[in-house]
Amino acid sequence: MRKYSCFLFSAFCIAIMGCHSMKKDHHVHEHEHEGMEEHDLHAGEKEHAGEILFHEEQAQAAGLEVMTVSSSSFTEVINVSGQIQPTPDNEITVVSGSAGVVDFVGNYLTEGMWVKSGTPLVTVSAKNMVNGDPSVAAEVEYESALREYERAKSLVADRLISQEEFEQIRLRYEKAKNARPSSVTSLGVTVSSPIEGYIKKVYIKKGDYVDVGQPVVVVSRDKRLQLRAEVSEKYANRLPALTGANFKPSYGDTLYKLSDLNGRLISYGRAVDDNSFYIPVIFDFDNRGDIIPGSYVEVFLLSLPLMDVIAVPVSALTEEQGLHFVYVQLEKEIFKKQEVRIGLSDGERVRILSGLKEGDRVVTKGTYQVKLAATASVIPEGHSHAH
Question: Domains of the chain (ranges plus CATH)?
Answer without folding.
Answer: 51-71+310-374 (2.40.420.20), 77-87+223-303 (2.40.30.170), 97-213 (1.10.287.470)
